[in-house]
Amino acid sequence: MKQILYLPLDERPCNADFTPMLAEGTGFRLISPPAKLLGKKKQPGDPDGLFRWLEEHSDGCCGAVLSLDALAYSSILASRLHQEELPVLQERLLRLREWKSRHPQLRLFGFSLIMRCPRYSSSDEEPDYYAECGAEIHRLGVLTHKKELGILEEDGAAELEALRTRIPPQALEDYLGRRQKNLAVNRLAIGLAAEGILDFLVIPQDDSAPYGWTARDQRELRLLIRDQEVSLRVLMYPDADAVGNTLAARMILQELGEQPLVYVKHASSGGAQVTPLYEDRMVGESIKYQILASGGLVATSASEADILLMVTPPSGNPQEHCPGQPLPLRMEYETNRTQLEQVLYAEYALKQGKTVAFADIAYANGGDPELFSLFKQAGLLWKLSGYAGWNTSSNTLGTAIPMAMLRHCCGPRKEHLDFLALRYLEDIGYMAEVRNAVCREELEKHGWNYFEVDGTDGEAARIVRNRLEAFAERELPFPGHRVRITECRLPWNRMFEIGLKVSVISEED
């Protein structure tokens, strides 16, 4: 069995667990560092310890998928909170040169995020001052960027000046200073790709938007990519937590000598032109990047394709799951989108022997219950080669596409069914149903709130597990099998995400 080193973005399940799970049963084993080296939420980890771990485990591996944020800062949150000097961060990345020279057999695939700028005021994942002026810092970035582009509206100049006086100077200095360091680290990463130290690099945009500090940094890095003539080996697109999946699939496919053709079919005529929430471009363009980064190519017809990717955006005005609230009924979802046709076409394509996957990008932060119901009615639940519907549109794409590619190239396996069951339980069961119910019915009663419950393995996690077990029993029929939850926790002591371990077992076991 071939081995690949995997350095995740942080210790959350979506980063630390999903990627190794996807690779299970493919003939490739992903080796990851101990979670303590990555830290925990705002508690930083050990970047030097992570590099030592890489050194100690390099022999016998064919490649490495590396979060450069983990290598430089220790984790994604550490990259937003650190007080390191720039030379320290640069020295940590430059160690890759000597490492590659000592282990020339290693192909190095890296990813390095452009630092995000949320549009809301919350310090849950940002510096403490972001709770007071985060929205203002975001808005200042939007207006500053528009002014530089010469498209600032007439009343924007006055708002821009008002924001500059309203935001505490020390907060803005700290925030923009850290952004400059992040920009310098990304420039260095592009340089390492130009040298050939990094064989492939993704620069993802976390919670991006068409205008603002993140889009401004993106423009500068894009020009550098062109100047360095590395556009074929350095891709930039929206994502963060799913890039490990994408690069692991790319590495496995290259080792196998495979390059699948993927045909994309949208549920709405205008779906490809919709810009999802928390992203900066039309989803049709993001999909192309995701397919290319995963090691595939975009097919021009279903007949020539190896994989059919069904995507489910609305025709416009995308919405998100808001815990404790019902989904709104809107024309963009109800009448200007036809998921029924997609499901019937998927049923037909499966009978023709095609590999079919669904990227459920209808809503941010959870899957679409209507689509899930259609799966059940058509008997598709356990026939799909990929499904995801969690967090941002690009997080979903970066899970469903690699999942389908590995299923297509490596064949059917129990591990694939386990991960498919996990996606149904997490993206539909938890994010679209159970989380909403627990937020409505349990938080206030127990004195909890959305961002703080009673620990990772406390009563809140027990309540969630009980409800998810009932969901699995009721909603995941699989003749001769049942879905067992072996672990359920709330990894950051909040309701936003969940940590599940799931197994599809024979009823005879």
Notes on the protein architecture:
With about 500 residues, the protein is an alpha/beta fold. It has 19 helices and 15 strands. It has helices spanning about 15, 20-25, 45-55, 70, 75-80, 85-100, 130-150, 155-165, 170-195, 215-225, 245-255, 285-295, 330-335, 340-350, 370-380, 395-410, 415-440, 445, 460-475, and strands spanning about 1-5, 30, 60-65, 105-110, 200-205, 235-240, 260-265, 295-300, 305-310, 320, 355-360, 365, 385-390, 480-490, 500-505. The strands form four sheets. It has a six-stranded parallel beta sheet with strand order 2-1-3-4-5-6, sandwiched between helices. Strands 8-7-9-11-13 form a five-stranded parallel beta sheet, with helices on both faces. It is globular and about 60 Å long. About 50% of the residues are buried. The mean pLDDT is about 95.
| Mean residue pLDDT | 96
**How many distinct beta strands?**
15
DSSP strand (E) fraction? 5-15%
Estimated structural class: alpha/beta
Distance between the termini: 28 Å
Helix content: 40-55%
Low-pLDDT stretches: none
Q: Strand order across the biggest sheet?
A: 2-1-3-4-5-6
Largest sheet: 6 strands, parallel
Rg (CA only): 22 Å
Based on CA inertia axes, which overall geometry fits? Answer: globular
The count of helical stretches stands at 19
